[in-house]
Amino acid sequence: MAAPGAERECAEAELCADSQGGSGVKVVPPSEAAAPAPLCPHGPTLLFVKVSQGKEETRRFYACSACRDRKDCNFFQWEDEKLSGARLAARECHNRRGRPPLSRLQCVERYLRFIQLPLTQRKFCESCQQLLLPDDWGVHGEHQVVGDVSVTQLRRPSQLLYPLENKKANAQYLFSERTCQFLVGLLSTLGFRRVLCVGTPRLHELIRLTTSGGKKSNLKSLLLDIDFRYSQFYMEDSFCHYNMFNHHFFDGKPALEVCRAFLQEDKGDGVIMVTDPPFGGLVEPLAITFKKLIGMWKEGQSQDDSQQEMPIFWIFPYFLEARICQFFPSFCMLDYQPGSTVAFAITVLSHIIHVRALKTAALFVVNWITNAVLALTSAPRRKPTKLSESRSKEKVIR
Ligand SMILES: C[S@@+](CC[C@H](N)C(=O)[O-])C[C@H]1O[C@@H](n2cnc3c(N)ncnc32)[C@H](O)[C@@H]1O
Ligand SMILES: [Zn+2]
Ligand SMILES: [Zn+2]
């Protein structure tokens, strides 16, 4: 029988439809699961339930949190299934094989050796998407290799690496230079000092570039992303290999502590999170993750600030506004209106939309910074859409 996990590709649309008598697959919140989730190479799996004409099936199943296509990760297990010792061992072995070839520490050591090399010896294998040390050259002899990798190129890994466009896993749609410049300027003007970049590698590198170039920006940035290739370019304090659909740090506690320290520095003052997840991702697991990150930030706050909300910019399809507001009632959507001459819409969202070739992008921000953003950008502010309206838009788009 085909695993129901294979049908998750339009899960969010289906999830919204289910209470109206629709069919699809829905995530079961971890708090409602009876046991800890089994692991796939992408960390703890998620528990799903199939919904047929508004009714949940009784048998629930675990599937990968990060990959919405079984070709990328074919993990499947019924919730009540008992696995033999041999199958558990085979799974453990499979998970080990799915881990990155190098540890985080090895990546850092390689990077430090790489930057010591003279320019003529700094090579990058395009076929393997890897920085090469002289010992590696033999193995990559027949591959597509570029030489003379400059410091500027090392600081812009998103230009050296090819974007992983697989829509059902990475969906790496990068911001244009202008969008990034605009966002960096906006964040700086709003007075933020630290940016937690969740799935925004290009924004991360521009922030670092702006700071290191002595261009008066004192923004710091930490990138959390599932794309392991970025490990080659950053030290441990600026990149964590991370899955935003289950809050999994692939390098365990030390990486989690890097994130915690970043969020809690200066008692959490001056932090904003900017996130641009794959548009096919489910809102609920993202919301659970973001609440965990918010929780970490809150732990570092003093008592007086306990009512404060962590500032967040979340770029996501506009038709999911009602879903997002279910989890974050204080979020406000800054809308893109076609034909509008509003500076913000033109300079930012139209670029995001072009880059992503989807006319669906919107920016969600925590309510209390809305006025500041609006004052700076003249972005239009809309009334929240009713759930029923957003559902009908969703159907049209899909
Ligand atoms: C739509 S792109 C956003 C890129 C952004 N516009 C930029 O230019 O910086 C999505 C990003 O999320 C990352 N990503 C995809 N799935 C992820 C996951 N499960 N956990 C963490 N990051 C993920 C991708 O590698 C990619 O960098
Ligand atoms: Zn997986
Ligand atoms: Zn190679």
From TrEMBL:
Domain GRF-type stretches: 40-82
Family stated for the protein in its record: Belongs to the ZCCHC4 family.
Protein name: rRNA N(6)-adenosine-methyltransferase ZCCHC4
Subcellular location: Cytoplasm; Nucleus, Nucleolus
Pfam families: N6-adenineMlase (PF10237), Zn_ribbon_GRF (PF06839)
GO cellular component terms given for this protein: cytoplasm; nucleolus
Alphabetical keyword list: Cytoplasm, Metal-binding, Methyltransferase, Nucleus, S-adenosyl-L-methionine, Transferase, Zinc, Zinc-finger
Molecular function in Gene Ontology: nucleic acid binding; rRNA (adenine-N6-)-methyltransferase activity; zinc ion binding
Species of the source: Octodon degus
InterPro entries: DNA_methylase_N6_adenine_CS, Mlase_EEF1AKMT1/ZCCHC4, ZCCHC4, Znf_GRF
Protein role: rRNA N6-methyltransferase that specifically methylates the adenine in position 4220 of 28S rRNA. N6-methylation of adenine(4220) in 28S rRNA is required for translation.
Record has Nucleotidyltransferase as a keyword: no
